[in-house]
Specification:
Elements: E1 2-9, E2 13-20, E3 25-32, E4 44-45, H1 47-62, E5 68-76, E6 82-84, E7 94-95, H2 103-113, H3 115-122, H4 131-141, H5 143-148, E8 151-153, H6 155-164, E9 168-170, H7 171-175, E10 180-181, E11 186-187, H8 189-195, E12 204-206, E13 211-214, H9 217-223, E14 230-232, E15 235-236, H10 237-244, E16 252-257, E17 261-267, E18 279-282, E19 289-295, H11 299-309, H12 315-323, E20 333-335, E21 353-355, H13 363-387, E22 394-398, H14 405-415, E23 419-422, H15 428-439, H16 446-453, E24 456-460, H17 464-499
Parallel strand pairs: 1-5, 5-15, 9-12, 16-22, 22-23
Antiparallel strand pairs: 1-2, 2-3, 4-7, 6-8, 10-11, 13-14, 16-17, 17-19, 18-19, 20-21, 23-24
Helix pairs in contact: 1-6, 2-4, 10-15, 11-13, 12-13, 13-14, 15-16
């Protein structure tokens, strides 16, 4: 029997999954690791934690393979900055996607390149989450670390290096660095030159289904694999999740509720929002793109709540309690801005808010308000996609939020459209495995791999009465950020003064 492996290097942990060539999950293993916040709004991880997680999970699942492992695909959290020295040792902890320290550097990037020109080349405005501003921050604040740097990699590409000894990335993940010419699918000499970043620091760029390297003897021994297994370029987590949910042609889209939340749509043409509210990246289908809106703290909001106020409750019990609370959470509305926000407000200073809190509210009210607030934020993303001319007619849902029927039905009601739940819950890992299947010759292209391996098991229909009720609170939700924007800025100024 032949097998494929998909590895998803996430923010809270790494999942490695062994699939057969029919898309069935044969074995799955997950290993968690911490996130460090040295200061308010900062977010870092140790790349060695990712590598240890990959080694342990691969060692566990490889034992279940009763035949040939034909290929390995990689997926991972995007935008993270991994810096290696001349000995290929990690210089400092990785600054990851949800870090918000680089506002000054974003302003500098836009000043140097110009807002409109940056959009034309990279498809996006300068954002704190992207890698370019992180590089600029290290240049300014840690010049010795930058001087020592010989290689800049993204999280999944650090794992690729550890597996294969090759410095490589793919077009989808590279798009999120803000150093790629997204239309031409190659590094932008103009951006690199103007920012003073040497191209030889960056990895070679591949299309997602291409072979980038092969498992080395050292990695094979550590991960209980055979030497020489091909490793596909893979994709950023959302681009991989798209393949894992069959989103590989116009009209198809998916929503994911993981640590962050995303509404993602495929497009055969490069489309970008002049206001920069959504991201335009190369997708894992060669020659195509995707547009997506992102909310920074989706599942993170609920996990934060559980860790702080409901450690005694499993998630299914939280769902059961929330079902007893009416739509609108008895006039309690939550803004999910724990880590700043991207779509549609683009404000790293934004912070979480419970609006309308009163003495009658319980933790069940707060939990439901969090789910509703995250769902409203995702609806914001869908609205901007529609406004940009990317119509989603076929919507799938994946991520941790897809596992419970309560949140699934809420999304369908708020979006007012049917929501597909896929047969496989592996999302990015399945997408990475499909890309590995393409790289190893099992599938001739990505659409064929999706057709053979991706199936829907259920479709959640919207309740129009519920939708009408949610719309009343959605209107209030949309009015809150404009009212609070200046207050968020004032609060951030106070924090900055304390640092000084």
């Amino acid at each position: 029997m032949k097998y494929l492996i998909g590895i998803d290097i996430g923010t809270s942990g790494t999942k490695s999954v062994l699939f057969d060539t029919e898309g069935n999950t044969v074995a799955s293993a997950t290993a968690d690791y911490p996130l460090y916040q040295p200061e308010n709004g900062w977010a870092e991880q140790n790349p060695q934690d990712w590598w240890k997680a990959v080694c342990s999970t691969l060692s566990e699942i490889s034992k279940k393979a009763c035949g040939e492992i034909c290929g390995i695909g990689l997926s991972g959290q995007m935008h993270g900055l991994v810096m290696l020295d001349e000995n290929n040792e990690v210089i400092r902890d990785a600054i990851i996607w949800c870090d918000g320290r680089t506002t000054e550097e974003c302003n500098e990037i836009e000043s140097i390149i110009g807002h409109d020109r940056l959009l034309e080349i990279t498809g996006n405005p300068a954002l704190e989450g992207f890698t370019a501003s992180k590089i600029m921050w290290v240049k300014k604040h840690e010049p010795e670390n930058f001087r020592r740097c010989r290689h800049i990699l993204l999280p999944k590409d650090y794992i690729r290096y550890m597996l294969t000894g090759v410095y490589a990335t793919d077009v989808s993940d590279a798009s999120g660095m803000q150093l790629l010419d997204v239309g031409k699918r190659c590094w932008s000499g103009e951006v690199l030159n103007k920012l003073g970043i040497k191209q030889d620091l960056l990895a070679k760029v591949y299309e997602s289904p291409e072979v980038t390297g092969y498992i080395t003897e050292t990695a094979a021994n550590l991960c209980v694999l055979k030497e020489g297994i091909p490793v596909a370029a893979g994709a950023g987590d959302n681009a991989a999740a798209a393949i894992g949910t069959g989103v590989c042609e116009n009209g198809k889209a998916f929503t994911t509720i993981g640590t962050s939340g995303v509404v993602f749509a495929h497009t055969d043409e490069m489309i970008f929002d002049p206001k920069g509210r959504i991201h335009t990246f190369c997708c894992a289908v060669p020659g195509a793109w995707h547009v997506m809106g992102v909310t920074q703290a989706a599942g993170l909001s609920l996990s934060w709540f559980k860790n702080q106020f409901a450690k005694d409750l499993p998630y299914n019990e939280i769902d059961r309690l929330c079902e007893k609370i009416p739509i609108g959470s008895d006039n309690l509305i939550y803004l999910p801005y724990l880590m700043g926000e991207r779509t549609p407000v683009l404000d790293t200073n934004a912070r979480g808010v419970f609006f309308g809190l009163s003495a009658m509210h319980t933790r069940a009210h707060m939990a439901r308000a969090i789910m509703e607030g995250v769902s409203y934020s995702l609806k914001n993303c869908l609205d901007v996609l529609d406004e940009s001319g990317v119509a989603a007619t076929d919507m799938a849902l994946c991520g941790g939020g897809a596992k419970g029927s309560f949140w699934r039905s809420m999304i369908a009601d708020i979006f007012n459209m049917p929501i597909k739940i896929m047969q496989s819950e592996e999302g990015p890992a399945l997408g990475a495995a499909i890309l590995a299947g393409c790289a190893s010759g099992i599938f001739k292209n990505v659409p064929e791999g999706c057709e053979k391996l991706v199936k829907a098991k259920h479709e959640q229909q919207p309740n129009k009465t519920n939708h009408a009720e949610y719309e009343k609170y959605y209107e209030i939700y949309n009015s809150l950020y404009p009212s609070l924007k200046s207050n968020f800025s004032m609060l951030a100024d106070l924090a900055n003064k304390r640092k000084d």
